Every structure is written in C-alpha cells, then in structure tokens.
Amino acid sequence: MAADGHDHSPIKQFEIKELVPIDLFGIDASLTNSGAYMLVGLGLIFGFLYFSTGGRSLVPTRLQSISELIYEFVANTVRENVGPKGMQFFPLVFSLFMFVLVVNLLGMIPIPGITFTVTSHIAVTAALALLVISIVIIYGLYKHGLGFFGLFVPSGVPAVLLPILVPIEIISFISRPISLSVRLFANMLAGHIALKIFAGFVGLLLGAGFWALLAPLPLALTVALTALEVLVAVLQAYVFAVLTCIYLNDAVHGAH
Amino acid sequence: MAETNKIGGADGAHKDVHTSTGAHGGSAESKFPPFNTETFAPQLVWLALTFTLLYVLMSRIALPRIGEVIEERRERIQRDLDTAERLKSDTDKALADYEKALSDARSNAGAIARETRDKLDAKVAKRQAVVDAEIHDRIADAEKRIQDTRTKALASVDEIATDVAGAVVKQLIDSDVSPADIRSALSKG
To answer: What is the DSSP string of chain B?
Structure first.
C-alpha cells in the first residue's frame, strides 16, 4: 500500500482524463471524464423530469411529485428573491440549480477509478458564475440603460462619502462572480480531498499491524464526512441558485 | 478515483493503479488538476454544449410540462372550490326560500282560516236573518189569523146575542121584535 503512495494522492481524483480526442477548429474539444459526467448529468436531469411527468396526472405519482417539488422549490426561490418579474429567468436558475446539484451528487457516488466531480474544477464554476454575471450586466443595461450603474451609488449617503463608497461597491460587485465560483469550487474540492485523506487513513492503519485496531476511527469519520458532503453538495447548489437570484434582482429592479 | 477504493482495502487500490495507467490523463501530472489550463478548453466546450442543451430542454420541454400540470391542478382546485362555493350559496338560497315559503304558508293559513270563519259567520248571519224573517212572518200570520178568528167570533157573539134576545123577548112579551130593533137596542145597551 505504502509503495504506490503516488496513486493515492488525494488530488488524483480531480484529474481530467481524455476519453475521445476531438479537435474543433484548433480548439481542444476532446470528450473528457468531465464532459462525460456533464452529459450523464444532463441525461439524468432531463430523463428524470421527462419520464416522471409522463402521466401528467392531476394526482401526481411519487416521481412526478418529486419533479413538481423541485419545480415549486426553485420557482419559489426565484419569486421570493426576484419577484414575479424575475420569472423569465426561472428556466436559467432551474437549469443552474439542477446542473450543479446533479453533478455535485454524481461526484458523491463512488465508482473506483471513475468518480469525478465536474464542479471541483474552477474552470467550470467560473464559467457558470461569469454566465450569471454577464446576464445580470447585459439585462441590467438593457432594462435600465446607464442607470444600471446607479447600483454602485448607495442611496441616502452624504456626497462626501461617495468617493469612498462607490469604489467599494464596484469592488463588491466585481467580487461577486469570484466568490460565486470559488465558493462552489472550493467546497467541492476541499470536501473530496478531506474524504480521500480520511479514507486513506483507514487503509494505512489496516496495513500497520497493531494500529489496525484504530482503523474504525477514520472509517467512522469518513462515513460522517460523506453525509456532510452530500449535504454540502445540495446546499452549494441551493446557494448558487439563491445568489444567482439575488444578483438577478439587481438587474431586474435596478438600484436599491 | 473514489473514496471507497481506499475503504475497500488493498485489492481496490491495485485495481486503481491499472485503470489510471490505462487512461490518457497523465500529460500534466505535476500540476494541480483544477489549475491545469490545458484542460480548460475541453471542459468549457462541453460545459457550453451540455448547459445550453440543458437550458433549451428545460425551458422548452421539461418546465412547461411540469408547469402545465401544476397550473392545471391549481385551476381544477380553484374550479372545484368555486363550484363548492356556488353550490353552498345555492343551498343557502334554497334554505332561505324554504323558510320564506314556510312563513308565507303560515300567514296564508291564518288568512284562510280567518276568511273561512268570516264567510261562515256571514252565511250563518244570513241564514239566521232568513229564518228570523220567516219566523216573523209566521208569527204575523198567526196573529192575523187569531185576530180574524176573534173578530169573527165577536161578530158571531152579536148575532147570537140578537137571536137570544129576540127569543127571550118573544117568550116574555110574545111579540115579534125585528132583529134590527134588537140589534140597535143591544148596541145601545
């Protein structure tokens, strides 16, 4: 066990592996394990929502009521945070929530040598965060024109303080996509590293003669951490959706 | 990759070695995978592809499908509630109508009873008047008859008295006195 320590490095699980090399006009568009997990997630989301509502029954079946529950949950989140005018963004928020949720949870299903968490890569989370912020800025400018930048001028503040407050507001606005992407990325990354390390202890202790007696301790911890990680996976998807709604609220309703 | 190949023990670990050497990903092993910029392009390409597809599928097919069912159910419930509300108000109205009909009937019954009584009273009075008149007539008749009889009887008394006086005078003085004389004598006396 100890000899091949390199293979059990806790960051090995984040490696991108090329499955089908594809070159698209000079861009490396190869299907990787990341892309495959995205496709699986897409298939699961659409497949579940589509087939669970197959009956379209007025009295929902169990699966249909799960679909309706998620639908109502996200719809209420959008309605509460953005208001009725924000419902045009409902499909976007729903897609974001489901995508993050499903790829997070898929990363929690252990398949030796295969399991991969799409959201543990900053490229993916940053792209999603930038998508959200771009939509906020473009829609805000389209809706309020240059008045959208009134967002950086807090109302009811003495003019003397504005030179200090406006840069702060601008910095806080710019840090939104960064915090949005890093939060998700860091949570998934750190969680999976911690799991891997504690699970690794179990193996190390088992191979250490007398110390094998202590092996159940990290095992119990791993089990507890797994439960925590499932919670984090769901929570981070929700946080991502809620923050998206809060940022969209600025775009829809303009300066506060 | 998974956490469990550690939990699974040594045999899982060896399997892991084989799968990882079989894969291509070893090109940038020294770098921390999430910061390996070489892998950004394929990730982003597939993210764009899958997320766009997801968005289209959600907004065009899945969400309208679910929303439709929920909306339909909401409408159905609202319709049923409205129907229930309408039926309840109908019931209330019917009940009020019934109460009104009942009180109407009660007051009608009183009126009819009063009317009937009045009618009967009038009939009785009329009949009584007729009977009274008849009785009155009969009494008058009877009185007239009595009167007649009495005058007739009285007239007879004069005649008898004349006859008797004539006979008495004839016996006493043995002369015939004309009845006219007797009559005048009697009426004088």
So the answer is: --THHHHT-HHHHHHHHHHHHHSSGGGGTTS-GGG-GGGHHHHHHHHHHHHHHHHHHIIIIIHHHHHHHHHHHHHHHHHHHHHHHHHHHHHHHHHHHHHHHHHHHHHHHHHHHHHHHHHHHHHHHHHHHHHHHHHHHHHHHHHHHHHHHHHHHHHHHHHHHHHHHHHHHHHHH--PPPHHHHHHHHHH-
Which domain range does residue A40 map to?
A: 14-253
Average pLDDT of every residue of chain A: 87
B50 and A35 within 8 Å at the Cβ level: the answer is yes
Of all residues in chain B, the one with the smallest CA distance to A88 is B59
Of B113, B132, B110, nearest in space to B121 by CA: B113
- Residue A200 inside a domain? The answer is yes
Which of the residues in chain B have pLDDT under 50? 1-28
Q: Would A2 be classed as within a structural domain?
A: no
Backbone φ and ψ of A27, nearest 5°: -95, 135
For the stretch A55-63, contacts whose Cβ atoms lie closer than 8 Å and that sit 24 or more positions apart, written own/partner, are A56/B65, A56/B68, A56/B69, A57/B69, A58/B69, A58/B72, A58/B73, A58/B76, A60/B69
Q: How, if at all, do strands A18-20 and A31-32 pair? A: antiparallel
Q: How far is B66 from chain A (nearest CA, A)?
A: 6
- Please write the tens of the pLDDT for every residue from A3-47: 444 456 777 888 888 888 888 888 888 888 889 999 999 999 999
Domain annotation covers residue A6: no
Q: Does the model's ipTM exceed the 0.90 cut?
A: no
pLDDT in tens, A83-127: 888 889 999 999 999 999 999 999 988 888 888 999 999 999 999
| Residue A152 pLDDT greater than 90, yes or no | no
What predicted TM-score, i.e. pTM, was given to this entire model? 0.71
C-alpha A92 chain-centroid distance: 14
- Rounded to the nearest 5°, which phi and psi values hold at A4? -100, 40
Query: Could you give phi then psi for residue A35, rounded to 5 degrees?
Result: -60, -40
What beta strand segments (E) does chain A contain?
A: 18-20, 23-24, 27-28, 31-32
Say if strands A23-24 and A27-28 run parallel, antiparallel, or are unpaired.
antiparallel
Contacts of B45 in chain A (CB under 8 A): 24, 27-29, 35
**What's the pLDDT at A105?**
93
* B70 contact residues in A (CB cutoff 8 A): 68, 71-72
The number of C-alpha atoms within 13 Å of A105 and in the hemisphere containing its C-beta is 15
The dihedral over CA atoms of A16, A20, A23, A28, expressed in degrees to the nearest 10, equals 0
